[in-house]
Amino acid sequence: MVETAEARLKRMGMRSWRRGTKEMDLILGPWADAHLGTLDAARLEVYEALLAENDQDLMAWVFGQAEPPAPIAGLLAEIAAFARARLVPKG
């Protein structure tokens, strides 16, 4: 059975919110809610690859403790900036 575009977005959204670590839920979930519906096919593929990574690696990349793989680095930087804007107190 072929996955519909709607089902794919729903699956990716759920995968963004149910990572296994609360920290990654709070980083990826809100970003997915705000951006998944606007991604073109190529960026959806990149996000799908990002979702396949384990949370420990994602955390290290988001916090700048390690260098992410080149194919996901740009999108991951956008996600990290979005998370910082949401989660870091202004002041």
Structure description:
With 91 residues, the chain is mainly alpha-helical. The protein has helices spanning 5-17, 22-35, 41-51, 55-62, 70-87. The longest helix is centred in the last third of the chain and has 18 residues, at 70-87. The radius of gyration is 13 Å and the shape is globular. The mean pLDDT is 94.
Oligomer: single chain
For the report, how would you describe the main beta sheet?
none
Beta-strand residue fraction: under 5%
Mean pLDDT across all amino acids = 94
Number of strands: 0
Specify the structural class.
mainly alpha
Order of helices and strands: HHHHH
Q: How far is the first residue's CA from the last residue's CA? A: 51 Å
Q: Determine Rg (CA atoms, Å).
A: 13 Å
Q: Which keywords apply here?
A:
5 helices, 0% strand, globular
Question: What's the helix and strand layout?
Answer:
Layout: H1 5-17, H2 22-35, H3 41-51, H4 55-62, H5 70-87
Helix pairs in contact: 1-2, 2-5, 3-5
Briefly, what is this?
Helix content is 70%, strand content 0%. The chain has five helices and no strands.
